[in-house]
Amino acid sequence: MANGMKSLAKETVIYGVGSVLPKLLNWFLGLYWAFALPRIADIGVLTNFYAWVALLQVILTYGMETGFFRFANKEDNPARVFSTTFLSICSTTFLFLLLTAIFLKPLAFELGGTEMKPHYLLLLVVILCFDVLSAIPFANLRFKKRPIRFVSIKMINIVLTIAINLFFFLLCPWLKTLFPETFGWFDIRNGIDYILTANLLASIVQFLLLTPEMRMKFTFDKALLRRMLRYSLPLLVLGVAGILNQTVDKIIFPWVYPDKAEAYTQLGIYGQNFKIAVIMVMFTQAFRYAFEPFIFARNKEGDGNRQAYADATKYFILLGLLIFLLTTGYIDIIKFLIPERYHIGLKVVPIVLIGELFFGIYFNLSLWYKLTDQTKWGAYMSLIGFAVTLLINILFIPVVGYMACAWATFFANLIMMLLSYYMGQKNYPIPYDLRSAALFFVLAAVLFAGMLLSYRYVGSIWARLSISTILIAFYAWMVVKKELPLHQLPVIGRHFKK
Questions:
Q1: Residue at a domain's end among 220, 247, 274
Q2: CA distance 261 to 477
């Protein structure tokens, strides 16, 4: 048992790094595009594109990754499960590519008007197809417990993507000044083409690196596929609802915003400022990799660990609020991660940060339906969150623009969080420390209000940063004083006795 937990912990760390680090590098690349591309509208187009990619990837894999794990562990012949799953994904992906190619021009116009050039859509679809075809080989690596190879290929993909982007946006302009005839083809106004080309080349290389996983005699088991689909298709509903909660605002914005000519510019401003708030998303994802194995391992020991679940959630809230204060308190520095022309949208950052913190708390609270095998509630709450997000965006984007997107994230995640807490206490009561959570939420709100006042009335950036530092230090001191068991430590503890 001890060796099993040690192996689980090791794989969790490797997969966690392999997931979070590529996302972090991709985050920096997305920030860089705002400096490299001449038009804000180009960033809006990319924001819209990759929202569609996230949604379509969930649809085109239709829960078969989870289905593969389930049946590969259940069946006597995992290779047959892999080949059946992979051939199913291949057939549906090819059909999707064929239909897109047939209706390319009308689809491009319907999706993005004049901003969506047909060759953009074709490149995007081919990228998506290679990524979808890579999903099951990646799942097979996880099934075979080969985390190093899994992470290595993921890292090669993102490093190659960044390298090709830097070639186009840094090296080519310089080479054009030296060899104008040879590099006469380069035009910075075609930046979206270069970004999509870099993504396509990296996706092709990633797929080729996974081909060793496909060296087998392929067989197709119709009966097995039917059983897998019965298991996997309900997961598709949950997956689509979950991803739409995160992307529907960026997908529908160009359709709902009243000024079509300005829509992608406004979406570009929102998309880049949303990237600043992704700091909270990455924190939540990193915590998730540690928390899920923790709760399932503890659950094997019986109900005596409910207090441990409550403590884990409390410390998540405390750290999440600290990240909120650090991001908003030092926004005078952080804002230079994006060009000045995007700073008009900084007002969405605090709203999205808290909204994403609510989602992280919701994830922590959701352990009740995982431990009681009532996962249908995850689907119900995701659908409710999606309905709230969609309604707010449709009603208010025409009125307040991208601010509606930020508030939709805030309220949808708040409602899911509250609903999960209510249902969880009825089905699997856990003694969460509501008093502590409320105290520190109020404290963070008061300190944030102090920061806002300093932004309004203090002209010096250094004075504002000093005020923020004092307020953040006070929050950290209160956390240590009230919640951390430092009083139990020798020497240090004398200064923190309660």
A1: 247
A2: 50
